[in-house]
Amino acid sequence: MTPNAPSSSAPSSPDASPIKDRSGVRVFSGIQPSGRLHLGNYLGAIRRWVHGQGATESFICVVDLHAITVYQDPEQLKRQSRELTAMLLASGIDPDRTHLFVQSHVRAHAEASWLLSCVTPLGWLERMTQYKDKSQKQKSIKTALLTYPVLQAADILLYDADEVPVGEDQKQHIELARDVAQTFNHTYGETFVVPQPKIAKVGARIMALDDPTAKMSKSSSTAKGHAVLLDDDDADILRALKRAVTDSGRDICFSDDPEKAGVNNLLTIYQLMTGKSQEATLADFASARGYGDLKKAVAEVVIEEIRPIRERYRQLMDDPAELDRLLAIGAEQARAVAEPKLVEIKEKMGFAVPAALR
Ligand code: TYM
Description:
- It is a single chain.
- This protein is mainly alpha-helical and 358 residues long.
- The protein folds into two domains: 26-199 and 319-357, 3-Layer(aba) Sandwich (Rossmann fold), CATH 3.40.50.620; 218-313, Tyrosyl-Transfer RNA Synthetase (Orthogonal Bundle).
- The chain contains 13 helices and five strands.
- It has helices spanning 39-52, 64-67, 74-90, 108-117, 122-126, 129-136, 143-157, 171-188, 234-242, 261-274, 278-284, 291-317, 320-349, and strands spanning 26-31, 57-62, 98-102, 163-165, 196-198.
- A three-stranded parallel β-sheet has the order 1-2-3. A two-stranded parallel sheet has the order 4-5.
- Strand 4, helix 8 (171-188) and strand 5 form a beta-alpha-beta unit.
- The longest helix is centred in the last third of the chain and has 30 residues, at 320-349.
- Mean pLDDT is 92; it is low at 1-21.
- It binds ligand 1.
- Residues 28-32, 40-41, 44-45, 63, 66, 152, 155-156, 164, 166-167, 169-170, 173, 204-206, 215-216, 218 line the site of ligand 1.
């Protein structure tokens, strides 16, 4: 096979593309082991992954290679990958129904990232808003901060994922992955499924409690009053929600008005936690005496949901060997899909893949 010559010929290994024969929807998503998880991660992503299990084939990845685009203390990184794994399991990720694994345990991600960077125009990466934001805040910008979305594209495309459930902030990266897939398919012949971002209608962007005009974010998650963290105890949760910034009015309503962003955010959290409609949510506050009542009610439903997660998390952290065992199984399941796909990519690009690797 020659490079640049589009080809639709079957890969040489019989199971080189198990994906093409599969029937169900395949889901892939990832989360960084950098910083503690907050309610935005939970409502915008994790909880949706949990609810989607079983109905789809799911791959959930602890993206440690992405985390090191900003310096991570090596000991801490190791600990944080385990902590994140425990938190995902505690939140309901079921290793019998989800392939849960750590990105660096599957070498194909780094290799595919290089290959895909060779079809990705620099201009696409320079336009990424997350790169523009983050690079402005740093004195010495590392190359990987720019190429980060190519690694993210590799994560998704290696699994031929149909759907990528993420929060709003990741939409542009998934669109880039789509563009990379289409460019590769056009250049080398049909190789990748073009993935769809799946962004929730409600809760795609949970806002910061201390500034409801900004998203709740991991980088500020430990700042006082910014977020509810998944390992917070009941008193911390109550305190954070009681301090949540609102407005000087009294109206408890859903609204796009930036003035009402704090109240809107609290109602959204309540609505998601209770599973109620907007109307039913508002009805619950029809006789509220003010924002104090709203904050108290939100704190109650958040505490009810977070408490068992925190308790399960603590139990899981007591058994690191079991976490490692589950991750080893997840990595093996991921490699079974990613490695043949990598061979397919390389063959399409014209590499002479040794028979032993096919
Ligand atoms: P990360 O680790 O920043 O966030 C993990 C998930 O949480 C969502 N999220 C939010 N959702 C709603 N409101 C918020 N305030 C909020 N903050 C975060 C994110 O949208 C995300 O879904 N680049 C990705 C990780 C990644 C990935 C992938 C995702 C790497 N490879 C492949 C999907 C597919 C990231 O940094 O997510």
